[in-house]
Specification:
13 helices, mainly alpha, 290 residues
Length: 290
């Protein structure tokens, strides 16, 4: 494996620690919390937190404003859907469905970015989708599970769009615009449905979640701009393990037997495939030499 791919994988694993901690912070929201009000506070807080770094980076600009605007508005859909799912379902269940995103990323990378996908990756993709069906259980499918799946799809689209940004573009400006350009959409939704009362606990949770989500997005920007999406998407699965651990440790949540089967179909083929391919390639070389 090439060094730049290994580095990108490690960065993405670190990012998924922060992603899991972000999910934990959302679980601490009250059940009747207003999602749009929370997100609006969070996005405004993100912009304020990023401003000093933006100035230190000599106020970088973007030559891809339309793409940045698209990412920001897709991110609004992802954030709302994911928070609704986290407030309605156990953390481990939400994470298991949401971490179908790496599979979706491989598919999008093939059809959109024209990245080469191997037979083993297609096999992993089909097994993963089977795992998603087991987790969602069509016979008893809830709207919350479907909302989380929507979040996974929109998240995957956003991750893929990072490959469209040039490596010369500063990660700070990408983070800044991702949050800044989402504020008008959130404000418009809030005007239509009404804003909730702002409390100090809501502000505190928004600031805490900001720290985690900004760290995650920064790691994603560095990773997905350094290597092909299909090469590093596997590292996203580490977030599932972190989420299951935090769900058990902090909330006493756990996956049932059938959910473990579905989660295994999503995660294990991707983790095992690279080692199997390397083993078969080495064995084939030895046989040809003998």
């Amino acid at each position: 494996m090439k060094p730049h791919v290994v580095i990108a994988l490690l960065i993405l694993v670190l990012g998924n620690v922060f992603s899991a901690l972000y999910d934990v912070s959302i679980k601490w929201l009250p059940q009747d919390a207003d999602v749009v009000t929370f997100l609006l506070i969070r996005q405004m807080g993100c912009v304020l937190m990023l401003l000093p770094f933006w100035f230190l980076a000599s106020k970088p600009n973007t030559a891809n404003f339309k793409l940045q605007l698209l990412r920001a508005n897709i991110g609004v859909v992802t954030s709302i859907a994911l928070i609704i799912g986290l407030l309605s379902l156990p953390l481990a269940t939400v994470s298991s469905v949401f971490f179908s995103a790496p599979i979706i990323i491989i598919v999008l990378g093939y059809f959109w970015l024209k990245e080469q996908v191997t037979i083993s990756q297609w096999t992993i993709t089909f097994l993963g989708f089977a795992g998603i069906l087991i987790l969602l259980r069509p016979s008893e499918m809830s709207w919350s599970g479907l909302v989380v799946l929507v979040a996974a799809i929109t998240f995957s689209i956003n991750q893929i769009t990072l490959r469209k940004l040039p490596q010369t573009e500063s990660p700070i400006v990408t983070l800044m615009l991702y949050n800044l350009l989402s504020i008008p959409a959130l404000a418009a939704i809030g005007v239509c449905i009404g804003f909730a009362e702002i409390s100090w606990s809501l502000v505190g949770l928004s600031l805490l979640s900001n720290c985690f989500i900004l760290a995650y997005h920064f790691c994603c920007i560095l990773a997905y701009r350094s290597a092909k999406a299909s090469d590093i998407a596997v590292a996203e699965y580490s977030g599932l393990l972190f989420c299951i651990f935090f769900g058990w440790l902090l909330f006493g949540e756990w996956l049932d037997a059938l959910s473990w089967v579905g989660a295994s179909l999503i995660v294990l083929p991707t983790l095992v495939a690279p080692f199997m391919i390397r083993y078969l390639a080495t064995r084939s070389t030895k046989i040809s030499l003998s």
